């Protein structure tokens, strides 16, 4: 390897421990792939070949190797970001659910547009109609295709 610094694999886990973790994390795809990656390096394969085998870039391979060398198995776990925070708080979602419940119990038929206007009036928050539909489903309400009005699920 000309021009590249060689990074060697530190032995945080024995071969048996790696095999045990592979069985345990079989259904956690990202961790499983990274464990296989470490196992192949542990067996003496070159990093470039292992990266090609897993169809990942060499810098990604070095990132995985460095994470494993620094933190052991914990370094192989993906670090998911939380995503964008919701415009409504969880308390506001509960309030919205109770408002919809009251209107339905009073015999009102609510469409997605009605809920959209309710959110704007009560909370001053603008969502797309698509997102309002998703929120309605998350709150436990459904639509009937022929009659797009809200009803309670049982």
Automatic annotation (TrEMBL):
InterPro entries associated with the record: Homeodomain-like_sf (IPR009057)
Domain of life (superkingdom): Archaea
Protein name: Transposase
Natural source organism: Methanobrevibacter millerae
Taxonomic lineage of the native organism: Archaea, Methanobacteriati, Methanobacteriota, Methanomada group, Methanobacteria
